[in-house]
Amino acid sequence: MNLANKVTLIRIFLAPVIMFVLLNGIIPYGAFAAAAIFILATLTDKLDGYIARKQQNVTRFGEIMDPIADKILISAAIISLVQLDALSPWIAFLIISREFAVTGLRLIAVEEGRDIKVNTWGKIKTVAQIIMVIVLIIELAVKSGPSPPVSWFQSLVYIYPATIISSLSLMVAVFITLISGIFYFYEYIRFMKVS
Questions:
Q1: d(CA 148, CA 63)
Q2: pLDDT at residue 195, as a whole number
Q3: At what angle do helices 160-194 and 120-144 cross, to 10 degrees?
Q4: Which CATH number characterizes residue 85's domain?
Q5: pLDDT for position 88
Q6: Which alpha helices (DSSP H) does the chain contain, by range?
Q7: Contact predicate 49/126, CB 8 Å
Q8: Do residues 177 and 125 lie in contact, with contact meaning Cβ atoms separated by under 8 Å?
Q9: Which residue range is the domain that position 53 belongs to?
Q10: Residue 128 CB burial class (10 angstroms; 0-12, 13-18, ≥19)
Q11: Mean pLDDT by 10-residue block, N- to C-terminus, for the chain (195 residues)?
């Protein structure tokens, strides 16, 4: 197993660490720590691709496991946010279902002799989901930071802006997630018509 693939596996192993830090409730500033670990984990996505290209050692394992590692990482964070009542279960269901559906579709395409590569929409989707998760975790940290009662100043400066930003990032991520899924299915149908 080459270095790039090992970096991909690190991203997978960091997923339960993020869940533990977010959910255990005993680590001081756990949400901020979880956000930092999540950001570190997402940076490994760029790192493994860079290493594979630099060493000219792009493997089939890396091509398959790299997007799966992203999905595991995002899913771990999303499930934790649902558990903490920071994210609607319905939104989590939509995002995770899309990931399973597209992964299944790509595997079916491979079995049929077609290779549906990660496209631009898929990459944008990943970035939108990463931003959404980071913003939601930071919002969680901000809201759980000051001890109640929260002053009007704290609400105006910290809590309201955090809520607005998290709502916007959530809407954008869900929209792009669904649109990118539709594009993958469209690409699959187009392939089937050609064959």
A1: 48
A2: 59
A3: 160
A4: 1.20.120.1760
A5: 92
A6: 3-23, 30-54, 60-83, 89-111, 120-144, 152-154, 160-194
A7: no
A8: yes
A9: 3-194
A10: buried
A11: 84 94 82 92 84 78 83 94 93 94 86 79 91 91 60 55 81 94 87 68
CA distances from 21 to 138, 153, 187 (A): 14, 29, 39
**Cβ neighbours of residue 47 under 8 Å, at least 6 residues apart?**
7
User: What is the C-alpha to C-alpha distance for residues 158 and 173, in angstroms, rounded to an integer?
Assistant: 22
Nearest to 171 by CA among 136, 137, 195: 136
Q: Up-side HSE of residue 20: CA atoms within 13 Å toward CB?
A: 6
Distance CA 142, CA 92 (A): 22
The tally of domains found in the chain comes to: 1
Q: What is the dihedral of CA 136, 123, 10, 71, to 10 degrees?
A: 60
Nearest-angstrom CA–CA distance, 8 and 27: 26
Judge contact between 150 and 157, C-beta under 8 A. no
Q: Which residue carries 């950001």 as its tokens? A: 39
